[in-house]
Amino acid sequence: MTHTATGHDAHDAPAAPPPRGFRRLTAAGWIRAAWMAPLFFALIAGLVCLLRWHAGWDPVWDWMPITVTAFLTALPIGFLAGIGTFDYWVYYALGHPTRPEDHSDHGARSWRDYFRVNTDHKVIGVQYLCTTFFFFVIGGLLAMLVRAELAKPGLQVTDAQGYNGFFTVHATLMIFLFVIPAFAGLANYVVPLMLGAPDMAFPRLNALSYWLLPIAGVMFIAAFFVPGGGPNSGWTCYAPLCEHNTFGNIFFNMGVQWAGASSIMTALNFLVTIITMRAPGMTFWRMPLLVWANFTTSLLVVLATPFIAGSQFFVMFDRVMGMNFFDVHDGGYVLGYQHIFWFYSHPAVYIMMLPGFGIISEVIAVMSRKPIFGYRLMALSLLAILVLGFSVWAHHMFVSGMAPYLRVPMMITTLLIAVPTGIKVFSWLATLWEGRIHFTTPMLWALGFVSMFVIGGLSGVYLGAVPIDIHTSDTYFIVAHIHYVLFGGAFFTIMAGVYYWFPKMTGRMYSERLGRLHFWTTFVSFNATFFPMHLIGTQGMPRRVSDYDPKFADWNLFISISSFVLGASILIFFYNMIHSWRYGPPAPGNPWRALTLEWQVTSPPPVFNFDEIPQVVGNPYEYGVPGARHALLDGARKHELEEVER
Amino acid sequence: MRRGAVWQLLLFTVIAAAIAAVMALYPAWLPPTASEQADRIGDVFWFATIICAGIFSIVAGVLIYSLVKFRAPRDDDFETDGAPIHGHTGLEIVWTAVPFALVTAIAVFSAIVLGKNDKVGDNPLRIDVTSQQFAWSFKYPQQQNLATTVLRLPLGRTVRFRFTALDVLHSFWVPEFSQKQDTVPGIDTFLTVTPNKVGTFPIVCTELCGLGHALMRSTVIVMQPQAWRQWVKSSTQAVSGGGAAAGKAVFTEQGCSACHTFEPARASGTVGPDLDKLPEFAQRAGQPLEEFVRNSIVEPNAYVEKGFPPNVMPKTFASLPEPQLKALVDFLAKGAK
Predict the structure, then answer these.
(1) In degrees rounded to 5, what are phi and psi of residue A110?
(2) Taking CB atoms and an 8 Å cutoff, what residues of chain B touch A543?
(3) Is the CB of A448 inside 8 Å of chain B's CB atoms?
(4) Is A589 a member of any domain?
């Protein structure tokens, strides 16, 4: 939390006085959101009814169009307008005098400020992280329900509809509400600091990107409570199944739009920030690898995300408006959906992985006290993954019935991605070599990531080879692979990042003992849960089934028990975080003696990060190089510049 | 590097390789193969396994060695730094070039196997497969359109499947054949399998197709060519011959006994209604027995007996050729009296 108590970051502007009387209803905030959201709903629902009545359609009140337009579109916009994300732009657009920027919505003075529209990238970063962990818990509980059902053959816990809903919403929340935005949250906090910038390029857009996110999350969960049950077509929502399935699938289609819009806005913000707001001397080849990683990720997001938005609109239009994108009886083309979907969703795998690569590079360099091995090749391999990532989507479709000639070229590009990925793993290993390795909690997660990601990457090589993929596609081997990549990969890196920057964000140290306990329980139970899935997959157990051949019963029981331990291990994390946030010992500005800029200011940093924009003079990882400096700050800057000149 | 260090590094790598080898060899990773294609896919699998186990061992060896050797002293509070090594061009070229060569090798091997596995030969057995929620049905166009729900294949002859999907995506997989193919509404898809082992194997739907996805199963029986020809002959004859034998053959072939009880066929399934009580049901439905039986096969949801959910009985049987359907209806209507 950015407290004002440290004195160092005293706010220029006092907090605006709380509104009184009638102004309480019209001032931006939760009260205004509470009446604006239903108002917007009523306006659009009324308009739909009016049009239907005028056209003589029966019934005038039809839930299908009203859900899509009024409930899933207008109501959230009303909420956003009420909470105040559009205020400045609306004043500006209407020609009203915009309120002078007094920075009163910048920085947090109390915990309440985290529940308001705030334009401080550090507050938004914390908002992102807390929100994503909230949805992570729900997604995790759904996974527990899935495993409870699979503990024994036959149906015990739920029925087929319930089961399909659980795994669909589990994946949806973990992907769209946890992994992608958790990285956005960490980067939001850290990237401007690393660049030596006072904030992101577009702070108001940044606030809007955040507030879109809970809307998407609430939509995915609300889908469980509509008649018929939740989305049950898998997170891939393949046509034509999802067009005929429960009404809840519309909530999925629209939720993805909100989460996707949030992603795209954040990515644009990162791109502009990274390109234009680097401190003097911060050339591209002096940027920390986390910044490089978010730069490439943002490019991927901006280029790819519109495709999933399109695919979800297509299936929804098929259902709601009777269009025929994927309805074969009227000339639709079923495989078209998969091509469009995977054109986003394969790059999305790298959207969920590259920021993690950045985090690991930071942690491994600092914790082994060594420069990153092959810094430029590390940055270039990110770009190589970015380019290759767009040419491999059809490896999800080797058995789909697409044109057979596409298979071999897609296999070659897929296997080639192993090369830049391999470069990264080998470079991390070489960074450890001859280092002074500190086994702190973030480092344990980083090392755990490297070892788990090697397994996930190698099973990816299996899947890239078409003949093996034909056997293993849509089996538990796939489930094992994606969890090694997204749990052993993305989740471990998020953990490394959260522990690594926790002192910076909160100004408190976490408990190392609990951190290590959390890591080891997770590491062991993670492997016990997901490694056997490779085996039952190749032996013949398909994925997404609520019931299975009794010959897999023993392994499934073992996996379910391990998964409950895995689920319980997260409790240690939450206890550690919450307890340390309140009672942990105060953190120094730079507990790891790291060189990157975010560690050169107080913990937590002042509201505008730097009293004076720093001057970057060298590379960010010059550990062990005598006299090397990454940047000159504040008073030291002028003095040392003179020294250098002399 | 000192000599001792090299030996230690090697030791860690060998231990990791031994663990990887045990993991690779001890569990039965692939089901016992039953087709030529599966044998070749297995070859690619083991080729990739050797390469991956090698890479894993090297990474694990270096990682563990580094963690043991380069651990910072306990009292070192981030004060001392490691060696300022920024890179090594030769090493970087090696770990770009070697993985490149290895994945290229996997790609080439895979492409060769793929080409061989898709070869149909000049005299394949053609089978049309219809998939729908939540059932498979098979038709033999070269055997007088013989239709079954349990697949029977002769040993050693290449089979060319043609798949159609009536509603949503499904996927045809026999783990022992290793071959898999999605079925797509509006598009015919194809798959080649040459069974090389006699036995009974499961057919599994692997593409999420709705609430009954987990239950969309069938069976494939690979028989000696002689026995298979015998089966084709008796099945087609039984049908064309008419009479109770024909009806009984269809009843058994279509797998009715899995769900229904029916005394004349010695069937005792309990998923669906007891067919010995057909006259009773017909009366309740208010239809003549024979018409009722036919309707219930062709359109199972038209009348659903109380206590049984709709949409469980597959609608595939509507596509039975007329002689088979007629034989089945006669058999059911007569046997129930």
Answers:
(1) -145, 175
(2) 206
(3) no
(4) no
Domain that holds residue A95: 25-100
Q: Do A465 and B175 touch (CB under 8 A)?
A: no
Judged by a CB distance cut-off of 8 A, whether residue A228 touches chain B is: no
Smallest Cβ–Cβ distance between A373 and the set B80, B87, B185 belongs to: B87
Q: What is the pLDDT of residues B237-268, one digit of tens each?
A: 776 666 777 788 788 777 787 788 888 888 87
ipTM: 0.89
CA atoms in the 13 A half-sphere facing the CB of A184 = 35
User: Is the CATH number of domain B242-335 2.60.120.10?
Assistant: no
- In whole angstroms, how far apart are CA A255 and each of A224, A285, A410, B133, B190? 13, 38, 30, 28, 36
A471 touching chain B per CB within 8 A: yes
DSSP character at residue B286: T
Work out the angle between the directed axes of helices A553-583 and A492-506 (0-180°, nearest 10): 10
Domain count, chain A: 2
Closest CA to A262 of A158, A183, A164: A183
A–B: how many Cβ contacts below 8 A? 260
Cβ–Cβ of A436/B76 closer than 8 Å?
yes
Residues of chain A found within 8 Å of residue B189, distances taken between Cβ atoms: 401
Point out the residue among A332, A371, A436 whose CB comes nearest to the CB of B72: A436
Task: Say yes or no to pLDDT of A645 above 60.
Answer: no
- Looking at chain A from residue 146 to 185, which residues have their Cβ under 8 Å from any Cβ of chain B? 159-161, 164
Bond before A59 cis per omega within 30 degrees: yes
CB contact under 8 A, A234 and B208: yes
Domain layout of chain B by residue ranges:
3-66+90-117, 125-231, 242-335
Map residue A59 onto helix, strand or coil.
Answer: coil
Is the same domain home to A71 and A150? no
β-bridge partners, B137: B130
Q: pLDDT value at position B99? A: 94
CA distance between the termini of chain B: 91
Domain B125-231 fold is Immunoglobulin-like (2.60.40)
**Closest Cα of chain A to B336: distance in Å?**
33
The pLDDT tens digits of the residues spanning B72-126 come to 988 888 888 888 889 999 999 999 999 999 999 999 999 999 999 999 988 899 9
pTM: 0.90
Closest-approach residue (CA) in chain A for B62: A429
How would you write A66-85 as a 3-class SS string?
HHHHHHHHHHHHHHHHHHCC
Where is pLDDT greater, at A100 or B280? B280
Please give the structure tokens belonging to residue A110.
């109390």
Q: Of the candidates A49, A69, A100, which is a domain's last residue?
A: A100
CB contact under 8 A, B180 and A399: yes
Contact criterion met (CB < 8 Å) for A436 and B41: no
Instruction: Give the H/E segment covering residue A334.
Output: helix A334-351
- For B69, residues 6+ apart whose C-beta sits below 8 A from its C-beta are B5, B8
Beta bridge partners of B35: B195
Is the four-CA dihedral A423, A428, A429, A433 of positive or negative sign?
Answer: positive
Alpha-carbon gap: A524 to the closest alpha carbon of chain B (Å):
17
Predicted pLDDT at A267: 97
Q: What percent of chain A has pLDDT over 90?
A: 80
pLDDT at A639 over 70: no
Interface of A with B in 232-261 (CB under 8 A): 232-234, 238, 240-241, 244-245
Contact at 8 Å (CB) between A624 and B83? yes
A71/chain B closest Cα distance in angstroms: 27
CA distance A361 to A428: 7
- For residue A425, give the CATH number of its domain: 1.20.210.10
Domain check: are A475 and A357 in the same one? Answer: yes
Residue A635 scores a pLDDT above 60: no
Of A371, A450, A474, which has the smallest distance from its Cβ to B206's Cβ?
A: A474
